[in-house]
């Protein structure tokens, strides 16, 4: 007897292993998954421009990177004693304009290089709601606490999202035709938009994304869809799996979704290496009651031996 529904997930035909080079882009849930990739020592880079929620802003950043369209003074503005760009997250904002521009353009160069060598790109879309600047009619990735009267809020239609996702794919494939894509929709609920509005927003993402996948898969392109939103809504449909704000998945939920991802998207050899790393990570966080004891010194020596053996077997792994 089963007391919950389980989301069927097929084994990926484009699995990740320890030779893979991964770029993760998108909403805050992208960072949750990237934290797991980092913990297990995969070669991963995450959100070089900070958390980005909507498809058009993600597309715009990939266009900048792929075309090496560097930021200029006209692309930044001063507000609340800091310099910002409407195209990136406020984590990159800076009190010095030149430092901000240097950081942004360094991110373009580094991401360009990463894209050229990437084997997998994981893109997590968060919302179809966007804010458009009234002054220049441009969609912003982050409002940076600029007064809301300077923006108009709009819901992206399915056709616009679909074209944006396809353009993002096309831009990347010009630079790296062999890269594999994994798409997902964030399970984080954007209730500030409204309950019905959040569902509508997610629905637009699903419809557009699955239409792109359907079209591209008929051409045998290396693309997958991971159902993180569906797992949260159907398998974990209980508030005990949410953090205090009742909107974001908590640690238990993130661990579970990661487990579902890893068992279907990580290669068999990769899973074995993950187990070795898990044992080492737990040992590294072990606290001894008597750090100076002979027993603990033997434990540390054995641990260092394990680390050296693993790093020799997989040179990309560093502790």
Automatic annotation (TrEMBL):
Signal peptide: none annotated. Residues 22-261 form the GSCFA domain. It comes from the Bacteria. Pfam families: GSCFA. One of its GO terms (molecular function) is hydrolase activity, acting on ester bonds. This is GSCFA domain-containing protein. It comes from Flavobacterium chungangense.
């Amino acid at each position: 007897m089963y007391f919950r529904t389980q989301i069927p997930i097929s084994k990926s035909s484009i699995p990740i292993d320890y030779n893979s080079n991964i770029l993760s882009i998108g909403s805050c849930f992208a960072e949750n998954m990237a934290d797991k990739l980092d913990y297990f020592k995969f070669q991963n880079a995450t959100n070089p421009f900070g958390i980005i929620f909507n498809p058009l802003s993600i597309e715009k950043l990939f266009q900048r990177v792929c075309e090496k369209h560097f930021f200029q003074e006209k692309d930044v503005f001063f507000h609340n004693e800091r310099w910002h760009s409407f195209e990136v997250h406020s984590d990159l904002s800076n009190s010095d304009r030149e430092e901000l521009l240097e950081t942004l353009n360094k991110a373009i160069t580094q991401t360009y290089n990463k894209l050229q060598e990437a084997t997998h790109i994981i893109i997590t879309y968060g919302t179809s709601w966007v804010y458009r600047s009234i002054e220049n009619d441009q969609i912003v990735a982050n409002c940076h606490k600029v007064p809301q009267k300077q923006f108009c809020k709009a819901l992206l239609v399915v056709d616009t999202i679909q074209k944006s996702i396809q353009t993002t794919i096309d831009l990347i494939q010009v630079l790296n035709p062999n890269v594999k894509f994994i798409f997902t929709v964030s399970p984080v609920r954007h209730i500030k938009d409204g309950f019905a509005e959040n569902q509508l927003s997610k629905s637009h993402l699903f419809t557009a994304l699955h239409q792109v996948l359907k079209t591209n898969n008929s051409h045998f392109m290396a693309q997958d869809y991971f159902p993180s939103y569906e797992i949260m809504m159907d398998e974990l449909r209980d508030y005990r799996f949410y953090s205090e704000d009742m909107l974001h998945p908590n640690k238990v939920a993130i661990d579970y979704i990661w487990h579902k991802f890893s068992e279907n998207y990580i290669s068999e050899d990769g899973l074995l290496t993950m187990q070795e790393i898990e044992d080492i990570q737990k040992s590294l966080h072990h606290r001894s009651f008597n750090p100076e004891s002979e027993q603990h010194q033997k434990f540390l020596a054995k641990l260092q031996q394990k680390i050296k053996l693993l790093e020799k077997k997989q040179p990309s792994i560093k502790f």
